[in-house]
Amino acid sequence: MRLRIPLVCLVALSAALIAACGSPKKTSTQTAAASARTCTPAQLQTHTKGVLTVATDSPAYPPYFEHNKPSNGLGFESAVAYAVAGKLGYKRSAVKWVVEPFDASYAPGPKSFDFDINEISITKPRSKAVTFSTPYYTNPQGIIVASNSSFAHAKTLADLKGANIGVQIGTTSLSATTSQIKPTKSPQIFNTSNDVVQAFKIHRVNAIVVDLATAFELISELPHTTIAGQFQAPGGDRWGLLMTKGAPIAGCVDRAVDALRTDGTLAKLNKRWIAAASSVPVLR
Known about the structure:
By secondary structure, the protein is α/β, with parallel strands linked by helices. It has helices at residues 7-11, 15-20, 28-38, 76-87, 102-105, 124-127, 172-181, 193-201, 212-221, 250-262, 265-273, and strands spanning 52-56, 95-99, 115-116, 130-132, 137-139, 141-146, 165-168, 188-190, 207-211, 225-231, 237-239, 242-244. It has 11 helices and 12 strands. Helix 4 runs antiparallel to helix 11 (265-273). The longest helix has 13 residues, at 250-262. It is elongated and about 60 Å long.
């Protein structure tokens, strides 16, 4: 709503009354320009002055990182991190990578990084302890089974109720399994994705639920397997850059991610690094 200027402010002759009218409000353009000036390496309050410290887990898997070397810029999340850094004005040489285990990343408390990029789903419980950026990717879930399994021909999620499903602890995949598939047997929960894969190899479980992008990578490593289908996690599995709760750089990071979405960069990186999911049936 537009403010009305009191008549007394227009006719007052004394300096005191003129001062009481206040100065004009900044235009939205001026405000945006001022905000943009704060989103520069010289102004940002980062973990190390002049450096953007980015975290991810180790090992770091394709298609998010290639050759287990996040600093090479190869892989979807490595490329996204450098694209965000570029929008904030950081050269590649000013980006420092550190290791942060997945489960530790969203624990309360200060962080030794500016943001963590590690396929971390934005959830309400996690958001109580950390701050997430606006989403840089929304990922469905995938179900991996043996190619000769009866589950390979599932037409609906109900067809997977009898599967003995393995899933990693603390992931959106776990909540998606219990709320969407509702298996008759409680899913077997493992500490790491490697543990889930090993359980599948020794037939301790006969299905794996994991995000779809990772599912494409896993079936390239697991012979005679297929992705039986894909489905959406409740509310969509949105990934965000994770920061310390109330991080002063959060607004600038949001602005950078939004700009990358608007100019099509995120879509291009998705197309380049994450396999197209059009051939995987959607199960409901």
